[in-house]
């Protein structure tokens, strides 16, 4: 059980950890899921708990539809925010793996077209200096590479790198060549899809993290020695090592030497993307609206930023109930 403190309560880290704690107290939870998966497999089924088994060990979410009410609310809030924002802004909406890795998806799976949904969203947005990153096009050009995990809903660090390179191109920056970046690899990662389904066909993933230099890392007023909680790599939720998981407000400083600041409003897909930005901005501020108790308008009154990036997975964007904080 997580330790309680007023600070943890008010920055929402306690509630997040307590929810995880409660889920893990369900007696024999993993064993029941495994038993159900074994039974489904014995009956010839390739689906369990909304996760389907594809080719080459890939697991995919079964997403036939999306709640329209929350999606419309979030789209409206984002449109209002961008139309009034006076600086340089970039929007990057990332699809789920099934939209890109179609040759690995089971034939006939009638999933929601995220490409059409993202195209519709992009067409509805406008702003003074707005960039709309064509993430689907970028990832599709590299679909033969290891850009999505087999067992997790996130993209890999390489997938995030390709998006970062597209961001650099859009902003006139020189992306760091992938081959020159110091990297470390962590094996035996089984992610969220596997945890939901326990499908016997699953193959473990590996996580790559990039050892890029920074000068300081602060998350919710706590100082940390770097951008990765390396002890997390030995635990089940290895992806949580990036940026020490999700925090309301994170500030990363580096010696990029550009004198520029960036603000990133994001979900967890940005956690393996943000480290690349630290080599182009002296300061990168990262906001997760799920845990940020102030409003973005208030933050913008206190600080000025050279560039703003809004980066979300499409499903998270459609379901997040905290977007009202953009205009708060």
Give a written overview of the molecule:
The chain has 328 residues and is an alpha/beta fold. It is built from 12 helices and 13 strands. The protein has helices at 6-10, 13-24, 29-42, 68-84, 97-100, 114-124, 135-140, 157-170, 192-197, 274-277, 296-302, 314-319; strands spanning 47-48, 51-53, 59-61, 88-94, 129-132, 183-189, 205-210, 216-219, 222-224, 249-253, 261-266, 283-287, 307-313. The chain has an 8-stranded mixed sheet with strand order 5-4-13-11-12-10-8-9. A 3-stranded antiparallel sheet has the order 1-2-3. It is globular.
Keywords:
single chain, alpha/beta, 8-stranded mixed β-sheet
Q: Care to count the β-strands?
A: 13
Low-confidence stretches: 35-44
Treating each run of at least 4 consecutive H or I residues as one helix, how many helices? 12
Structural class label: alpha/beta
Give the distance, in angstroms, between the N- and C-terminal Cα atoms. Answer: 33 Å
- In which order are the strands of the major sheet placed? 5-4-13-11-12-10-8-9
What's the SSE pattern?
A: HHHEEEHEHHEHHEHEEEEEHEHEH
Content of β-strand: 15-25%
Mean of residue pLDDT? 91
> What's the structural domain tally?
1
**Cα shape:** globular
Q: What helical percentage do the residues reach?
A: 25-40%
Instruction: State the major sheet.
Output: 8 strands, mixed
């Amino acid at each position: 059980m997580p330790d309680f403190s007023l600070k943890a309560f008010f920055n929402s880290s306690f509630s997040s950890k307590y929810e995880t704690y409660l889920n893990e107290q369900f007696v024999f939870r993993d064993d029941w899921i495994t038993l159900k998966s074994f039974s489904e497999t014995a009956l010839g089924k390739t689906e369990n708990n909304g996760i389907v088994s594809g080719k080459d060990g890939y697991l995919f979410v079964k997403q036939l539809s999306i709640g329209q009410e929350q999606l419309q609310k979030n789209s409206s809030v984002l449109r209002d925010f961008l139309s009034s924002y006076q600086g340089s802004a970039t929007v990057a909406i990332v699809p789920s793996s099934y939209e890109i890795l179609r040759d690995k998806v089971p034939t006939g799976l009638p999933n929601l077209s995220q490409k059409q949904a993202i195209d519709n969203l992009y067409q509805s947005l406008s702003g003074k200096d707005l960039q709309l990153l064509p993430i689907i096009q970028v990832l599709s050009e590299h679909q033969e590479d290891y850009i999505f995990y087999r067992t997790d809903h996130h993209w890999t660090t390489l997938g995030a790198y390709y998006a970062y390179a597209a961001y650099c191109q859009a902003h006139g920056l020189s992306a760091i060549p992938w081959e020159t970046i110091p990297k470390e690899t962590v094996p035996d990662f089984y992610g969220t899809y596997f945890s939901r389904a326990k499908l016997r066909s699953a193959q473990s993933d590996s996580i790559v993290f990039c050892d890029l230099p920074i000068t300081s890392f602060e998350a919710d007023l706590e100082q940390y020695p770097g951008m990765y909680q390396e002890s997390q790599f030995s635990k089940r939720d290895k992806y949580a090592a990036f940026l020490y998981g999700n925090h309301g407000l994170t500030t990363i400083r580096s010696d990029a030497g550009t004198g520029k600041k960036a603000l990133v409003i994001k979900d967890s897909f940005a956690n393996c993307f943000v480290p690349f930005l630290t080599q182009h901005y002296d300061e990168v501020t990262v906001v997760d609206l799920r845990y940020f108790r102030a409003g973005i308008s208030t933050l913008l009154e206190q600080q000025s930023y050279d560039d703003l990036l809004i980066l979300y997975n499409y499903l998270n964007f459609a379901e997040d109930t905290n977007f009202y904080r953009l205009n708060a």
